[in-house]
Amino acid sequence: MMSVRVVNAGDGYAYLMNSVATHDENTAGTKLADYYNASGTPPGRWFGKGIAGLGENSSVTVGSTAQESQIAALYGEGLHPDADARINDGESLKDVQLGRQYPIFTKGVDVLEAVKAAQQAFVEGNGRRPTTDEHNLIGLETARPFYEAQAGVSASSAREVLAWLNEEKNKVKQATSGVDLTFSPQKSVSVLWALGDDTTRQAIEKIHNECVEESLEWVEDNVLFTRTGARGERQIKARGMIASTFVHYDTRAGDPDLHTHCLISNKVQAARGVDGLTDAEADKWRSIDARALLQNAARVGQRYQQRLTHRLSEELGVDFRPRITTDDKQPVWEVAGISDDLIESFSSRRTMARPVYEKYAADYAATHGVLVVTGTD
User: Fold this and answer.
1) Which domain of life is it from (predicted)?
2) Residue 98 included in any domain
3) Is 326 within a domain?
4) Cβ(53)–Cβ(62) below 8 Å
5) Same domain for 220 and 317?
6) Same domain (yes/no): 320, 363
């Protein structure tokens, strides 16, 4: 299957997309890269035909490691991934912008206004953008007095302050900086991968990785668009994506869960040869037409799932069985020989979430006078 999540732009604390943002005690990082570059997982890798638009001298090439500073520049601020190095070599912020700068919205919230002003003061005083660590330190030091005043405490930890700051940020709609496509095989495939010998694990992971890459290539060729015109009324083909892919091996609860995150940057260029566009106009950096991508998300997920199941069957001789979890859903084709009980035993995160979901459903039903059906999946 494939899930989709929008990635929002922002400075410093907007990178908090992991444990601090979700109050998950199983991870302790405070930046976007901490989650995607989790301990024990392979480094992120760059992917996409759009990378060519970054220039011949770019350190970002297809297959190269996605560095934290590159991730922060591109997804956090809409800058060239090499922004820090290029600014150090004398270029200006405007020189390293990929199209329009992402706006920072505060909606008049005092702490967000203060953090924005502090970050702007840093740029003006130092003649450069802060590093990722400096971004987070600015957010922490600026937000701490606001947090302590509201919480009525005189001492607070960095985790408490940054978690609260991120909650305040999440209340204010921010610009979209990308889309995270997460490709996950059936749970039984992850179980087979986790319990298999080295040869089996490597074969399953290789097939998964190749099916993900094939799916992303299909996205580039078929559903990656941007828009042009005074009001963005014309949909045109995008040249290709700039994306970073991250392979993860488990859930935050520690259950085996082979999956790949693909962070597609919102920055794209138009395909060359589009009617009415000169090459110079095509080279302009634009935004992805996210509607086309979201509308085809289910189709992309189905293509990945079908290819994965077919290749596991053809190349490894894996048999599959239909598993129906509720009456209103299509069956999931799980690995034959891996029981439902074993699948559930490796799904502790979902099991822990079930009582919480059922309580909210019951409360909603009582409040609104409706029947809410709570299935087992």
Assistant:
1) Bacteria
2) no
3) yes
4) no
5) yes
6) no
Whole-structure pTM value: 0.80
Q: Which of 277, 276, 244, 275 is nearest to 261 (CA)?
A: 244
Least confident range from 176-190, 228-242, 347-361: namely: 347-361
Pairing of strands 243-250, 234-237: unpaired
In a domain, residue 100? The reply is no
Q: Is 74 helix (H, G, I), strand (E, B) or coil?
A: helix
């209340």: which residue's tokens?
A: 171
Model confidence at 6, pLDDT cuts 50, 70, 90, reads confident
- 289 & 372 share domain: no
Half-sphere exposure of 87 (CA within 13 A, CB side): 20
In this prediction, residues 157-176 reach a mean pLDDT of: 86
Decide: 119 and 12 in contact? Cβ < 8 Å. yes
322 and 184 share one domain: yes
- Cβ-count burial 342-357 (b if 16+ within 10 Å, e if not): bbeebbebbeeeeeee
Cβ distance 91 to 84 under 8 Å? no
pLDDT at residue 244, as a whole number: 93
Average pLDDT, the chain: 82
**Same domain, yes or no, for 251 and 223?**
yes
Beta bridge partners, 287, equal 267
* Greatest alpha-carbon span in the chain: 64
Strands (E), the chain: 2-8, 45-47, 176-183, 225-228, 234-237, 243-250, 256-265, 267-269, 285-287, 320-323, 332-335
Amino acid at 174: Q
Name the residue type at position 21: A
The letter for the amino acid at 349 is R
Q: Is 24 exposed, middle or buried (0-12, 13-18, 19+ CB in 10 A)?
A: middle
Residue 111 lies in a domain: yes
Q: Which of the pair, 305 or 352, is modelled with greater confidence?
A: 305
